[in-house]
Description:
The complex is a heterodimer of chains A (454) and B (275).
Chain A: E1 2-10, H1 16-19, H2 26-39, E2 44-49, E3 53-61, H3 68-79, E4 91-94, H4 96-106, H5 118-132, H6 140-157, H7 167-178, E5 186-190, H8 194-204, E6 210-214, H9 218-227, E7 231-233, H10 238-244, E8 247-250, H11 261-270, E9 276-280, E10 297-301, H12 302-313, H13 320-367, H14 374-401, H15 407-419, H16 426-429, H17 433-446
Parallel strand pairs in A: 5-6, 5-8, 6-7, 8-9, 9-10
Antiparallel strand pairs in A: 1-3, 1-4, 2-3
Helix pairs in contact in A: 4-6, 4-13, 5-6, 6-13, 7-8, 10-11, 13-14
Chain B: H1 6-28, H2 35-63, H3 72-93, H4 99-120, H5 129-164, H6 176-206, H7 220-236, H8 247-269
Amino acid sequence: xxxxxxxxxxxxxxxxxxxxxxxxxxxxxxxxxxxxxxxxxxxxxxxxxxxxxxxxxxxxxxxxxxxxxxxxxxxxxxxxxxxxxxxxxxxxxxxxxxxxxxxxxxxxxxxxxxxxxxxxxxxxxxxxxxxxxxxxxxxxxxxxxxxxxxxxxxxxxxxxxxxxxxxxxxxxxxxxxxxxxxxxxxxxxxxxxxxxxxxxxxxxxxxxxxxxxxxxxxxxxxxxxxxxxxxxxxxxxxxxxxxxxxxxxxxxxxxxxxxxxxxxxxxxxxxxxxxxxxxxxxxxxxxxxxxxxxxxxxxxxxxxxxxxxxxxxxxxxxxxxxxxxxxxxxxxxxxxxxxxxxxxxxxxxxxxxxxxxxxxxxxxxxxxxxxxxxxxxxxxxxxxxxxxxxxxxxxxxxxxxxxxxxxxxxxxxxxxxxxxxxxxxxxxxxxxxxxxxxxxxxxxxxxxxxxxxx
Amino acid sequence: xxxxxxxxxxxxxxxxxxxxxxxxxxxxxxxxxxxxxxxxxxxxxxxxxxxxxxxxxxxxxxxxxxxxxxxxxxxxxxxxxxxxxxxxxxxxxxxxxxxxxxxxxxxxxxxxxxxxxxxxxxxxxxxxxxxxxxxxxxxxxxxxxxxxxxxxxxxxxxxxxxxxxxxxxxxxxxxxxxxxxxxxxxxxxxxxxxxxxxxxxxxxxxxxxxxxxxxxxxxxxxxxxxxxxxxxxxxxxxxxxxxxxxxxxxxxxxxxxxxxxxxxxxxxxxxxxxx
Lengths: 454, 275
């Protein structure tokens, strides 16, 4: 029996400064999962790290590890930050709540921008990475496969994704509030990630005078520049490009800001205080917050843009009703599957164990009745089977009706396994005839009253 | 020279009412977007302009002179008409949303001033070419500075919204780039006219053709006019010192206009026959 658990933070619980402390790029995600599995080998794990959230999904044995504190310690150790710096922003969920949350995440119901499709791809990538690392197993695999299917269904079949606006389009709207004409403007992109490509494509539609692509990896810069009719430029001459640019889109994977206030002070003078629109969609941020305080600098980070998008979508809450109904249905389905998966073997084991015991006792009795006819033998066999079935009927019914994703039931099943020794190897757990007899004789000796046996 | 008649004042009142209604309809579109509101606002603007022009024509006919700025009544109405024409022109050629919200209040105020000061203190202004040039350039400069101040205010609002990163971008008031360009163009025109006004005024002062006396250079009107000139000179030197562009230029445009209003008020209330 495994327990699902989730520890994480997102845009609703943590500001950008905190989220960037727990931001993992794909390489870091892989290393983190490997380290996690090394520390907790019995536990399945998956790390979902996006601009808006960092979530660690685990499936561990009921009384196994890691516990919450161990998970927090792991994240703090791995990122090299103090646990106090993010602990208060964390949320934790278990069992059914995890399933519900993940399905909502995958279908963008938990996103800042309702109906955004990027999150589905991010969940898929996180799952594929965890699968490659072999950190997912019997519970997280089906859970994430189901989540991807649910997300896909909702985004395709509900009005959630209709008429949505993107961060890129919001960035363009704001650029239009700053600049009137783009034919004499220079748009510079630093980094060549997916988000940068998306934003750049929107800016390319404005037909700017120059479109520069600057990336440490010149090959990627060339490819993106080629796709957008831009010019690939040398990363080493970033300051020169910043001096020339009017719109800067930055989304590198750098762990530290690549544009600092001190650096931009000089750039502003060189550009004669011409207005510049900086769009920082990187996490961790590429541009120091202080740069936005400078004259003629309009700095927008991911949260600023998403806030605008979210505001625009605030009046679209009605469209989530249908999506939430679909999520609820799939959560119930998954719960049923999980119940069957977790309880089926326990119920089978319980049933087999007691039918086997009954058959054993029947054989002993039949051995003492040599003249019994076949018909009578058959009746006795039916009798014992019915007795066992009737004895087990209520507990099995209760188990089947219980929701396998609710904590009390998982503990109940665990208790059942312990009480009836169902988790022990079959041969070892079955009480041998000698031990049963011996127990009986012990009871006879210890019993203060008259024996009930004939 | 005649004071405006009651009929002319009533027509002026109709013009003011039409501008107020048009402005209210235009502002209401911030909350409710209706096609008829837009058309209604535009119609009120045109009818208000016609009413103001009719008042001007009627007044000129009644006093038997077509010289436009012979008295306060004429002068204020002319200023209002020029500003309204500017709003209509921009609206037709290259619309700047919200421009009327900032300029039309000034138009209404000018018309109210015309009604108040035009009736009470008519003046004979045109006595020489120097005087004529002085009045025309000063009033022309005032129109340009009024536009610069209005557009400067719009710049500050847009700039503030962008800097505060408001979740809602708010009503579109045009781009910072266009607003800055318009401010600079208005200030450049106004500055040229103001300079002509100052030079012609100086000539008049030196020829003792004003009642400012020998100490004309200590008159509040002259000091304020010079202050206005210096403020706008600062705005215009932004290409040399670029840190004066953008927000600072917008603030200075508003400050300059306020000083200029002070100068006009000083000119109106100074105890002099001709100024």
